[in-house]
Design goal:
Elements: E1 14-18, H1 22-33, E2 37-41, H2 47-55, E3 59-61, E4 75-78, H3 83-95, E5 99-102, E6 115-119, E7 122-126, H4 133-146, H5 149-168, H6 172-182, H7 185-193, H8 195-204, H9 208-213, H10 216-220
Parallel strand pairs: 1-2, 1-4, 2-3, 4-5
Antiparallel strand pairs: 6-7
Pfam families: NAD_binding_7
Catalytic activity: precorrin-2 + NAD(+) = sirohydrochlorin + NADH + 2 H(+)
Pathway: Porphyrin-containing compound metabolism; siroheme biosynthesis; sirohydrochlorin from precorrin-2: step 1/1
Length: about 220
């Protein structure tokens, strides 16, 4: 599958899920995090999905898929255990220029979903082109061991420091040097191992003007 990796902003976008099993449950959870406007169609749903739908006031139609379900939809998931219905959803979605993911057919899908590793604003994805999803999962598990909670904390800190650096360091070359020095995996690792040493190292990499503006010791103790 020839693909172009992209992160979509689905906030407020209408997304259709057809299916009520474990895969649909996982998709609904992820789409809730993305603030998507979800509609689910399925004759039956597993218990934990039913509860998720109720808890989040998600629009749910307990019936089979109809062509009209695709009206005004931005993104669609065909997740049933019926090959004919999944293929029909894919065909109609493409006809209406709707992005569609088909659980049992890579060829009929217009997009696929990679394995994800998330630590706050850090998002890492792994994909194998649909050829061996189990390998994506294995690589994801390896990455999860390498990128822990400290990356989430570090990026939260950078939300504060980056605009301060941009707003107070006029020289572009100096700004690039500062950001390059901060993008150090060993520095980030210290955040998990020794916060005091992390603060010392961080302070050494920041210009005095920035240290005068903010209290690093206070910021790091969130």
């Amino acid at each position: 599958m020839n693909s172009y990796p992209i992160n979509l902003n689905l906030s407020g976008k209408s997304v259709l899920i057809v299916g009520g099993g474990k895969v649909a449950y996982r998709k609904v959870k992820r789409l809730l995090d993305a603030k998507a406007k979800i509609t689910l169609v399925s004759l039956t749903v597993i218990d934990k999905l039913k509860q998720l739908l109720l808890d989040n006031n998600i629009k749910y139609y307990q019936r089979e898929f109809k062509e009209g379900d695709l009206l005004d939809i931005f993104l669609a998931f065909a997740l049933t255990d019926n090959r004919r219905i999944n293929s029909l959803i894919a065909s109609l979605a493409k006809k209406n220029n709707i992005l569609v993911n088909v659980a049992d057919s890579l060829e009929e899908s217009t997009f696929t979903l990679p394995s994800l590793i998330e630590q706050g604003d850090l998002l890492l994805t792994v994909a194998t082109g649909g050829n061996l999803p189990a390998l994506s999962k294995r690589i994801r598990e390896e990455l999860e061991n390498s990128f822990g909670e400290e990356y989430k904390q570090f990026l939260e800190l950078m939300k504060i420091l980056r605009p301060l650096i941009i707003g107070n360091v006029d020289d572009k070359k100096q700004r690039r040097r500062i950001f390059r020095d901060l993008a150090d995996l060993e520095l980030i690792g210290l955040l998990a191992e020794d916060k005091n040493q992390f603060l010392e190292e961080l302070s050494d990499r920041l210009p005095d003007k920035i240290k005068d503006i903010c209290d690093l010791d206070y910021i790091i103790k969130w």
